Amino acid sequence: MVSYAWTVALHLGCTWSAGIEDIVLDTGPEDWQGNGEWRDGNPLPDSDSDGDADADGDADADVDADTDADSDVDADADADGTAPDGAVSGLIDVLYNVNAYVSPPAVEFTANARLHDPMVGSWLSWMPPMGTCQRDPVRTALASTGNSLGSWAYLNLGTTTSIAMGLNSATNTYSAAAVDASQWVNLSSYTLSIPSSDYDAPGALVTPGGFDDFSPALNFDPTYALSIPVSAEAATFGWSPAGVSDGVSISLMVMSGETGMPVGEVHCWVPDTGSFTVPPTMFYAPVPFAAYDLMYIMLHRYTVTYTENPLDGGLIEAVAKKGLTGSGVLMP
Fold first, then answer.
1. What number of other Cβ atoms are within 10 A of residue 50's Cβ?
2. What distance in Å separates the CA atoms of residue 196 and residue 205, rounded to the nearest whole number?
3. How far apart are CA 322 and CA 40, in angstroms?
4. Residues 157, 169, 110, 5, CA torsion sign
5. E-only strand ranges, 169-314
6. What's the mean pLDDT in 286-300?
7. Residue 216 has what pLDDT?
8. What is the pLDDT of residues 119-139, one digit of tens each?
9. Do residues 15 and 108 touch, judged by C-beta distance below 8 A?
10. Which residue has the higher pLDDT, 145 or 33?
11. Contact 305, 321 (CB under 8 A)
């Protein structure tokens, strides 16, 4: 089920709510928290040149959606090889997710990059407007294939942190799975580097901050999986601290309580203010969910960065996501 949730949701947000009783999260360093711990400390200045680039929702720019139909119009490069103003010619998608419904918590840390021909549009155009929700979003890829600049690409932070991504020749996408948690550093700026092509894009990816707490409370005990109640009339999610990302993606992947089969998704893209209540109408239309339907709850911070692609002057659209995946049961 978890793999389904991520395939459908990419690509942008998570939170599993599991226990019914409130618990106190340990904000000390843990292996699964990554560098900077779950607690942020003093936030660094936001180096995101676009500020809030709120076009993404759980702004999951899914580079894995290789089979999605590309409905965007190709923005042909100018005669001198440069991209038209505002055209996007690259994607970086990094996800740090903690599956909190298992014990001990399991980290899912992946990184993908695709440098492609300039296109008019955004990898995040499928997201709802900031502060709103949508039912059953259709995720599309801006470019189904990329361009090869060598066998390996790297996201580097200083001299000690480096995420190595190998080239998938089928789509010319650079990918890394099961990245070591130590390679994530909160509120930091990474350089995209492809040494074989002398390619460097400083500041191409900026990471969001982490979390100190969530509500409904999380419980790192599989005994409570798919049991935390979520009311259709008062589905409020909270987190702290606030204001250390461009936005928060909340995705509720709903499954039939009788068959366990997927029945729909509610996806919200909201300001990083510390709480959000999903409008009750999301649970009733276009097709009502049923009481005791099960759900995966994905809550992730997003920081979206736009930097110049040194190849053609287009924009590299980068989405860094950090959060959790939990579970619950829908109640009236």
1. 14
2. 20
3. 12
4. positive
5. 173-176, 189-194, 199-206, 213-215, 229-231, 235-240, 247-255, 262-270, 275-278, 294-308
6. 95
7. 85
8. 999 999 999 999 999 999 999
9. no
10. 145
11. no
- For strand 229-231 and strand 315-331, is the pairing parallel, antiparallel, or unpaired? parallel
Q: What is the Cα–Cα distance from 85 to 91, expressed in whole angstroms?
A: 17
Bridge-based pairing state of the strands 294-308 and 275-278: unpaired
Give 209-258 pLDDT, tens digit per residue: 999 988 886 555 667 778 889 999 999 999 999 999 999 999 999 999 99
Q: Are 154 and 162 in contact (CB under 8 A)?
A: yes
Backbone torsions φ then ψ of 195, nearest 5 degrees: -55, -35
Per-residue pLDDT at 105: 81
- The whole-angstrom distance between residue 274's C-alpha and the CA centroid of its chain comes to 18
Residue 220 has what pLDDT?
54
Q: Quickly count: other Cβ atoms within 10 Å of residue 256's Cβ.
A: 15
DSSP 74: B
Please choose, from the candidates 191, 195, 112, 197, the residue with its C-alpha nearest in 3D space to the C-alpha of residue 158: 191
Q: How far apart are CA 169 and CA 244, in angstroms?
A: 36
CA distance readout (Å), 312 to 31, 80, 200, 201, 291: 40, 9, 13, 12, 52
pLDDT on residue 83: 60
Torsion angles phi and psi, residue 66, rounded to 5? -65, -25
- Which one is predicted more confidently, 83 or 52? 83
Provide the 3-class DSSP secondary structure of residue 79.
coil
Would you state the structure tokens that stand for residue 287, as one six-digit string? 């097709």
Burial category of 21 from C-beta neighbours within 10 Å (exposed 0-12, middle 13-18, buried 19 and up): exposed
Nearest residue to 246 via CA among 91, 54, 118, 103: 54
Distance CA 208, CA 57 (A): 14
Element (H, E) at 6: helix 2-9
Q: Label residue 146 by pLDDT band (50, 70, 90).
A: very high
The rounded mean pLDDT for the chain is 79
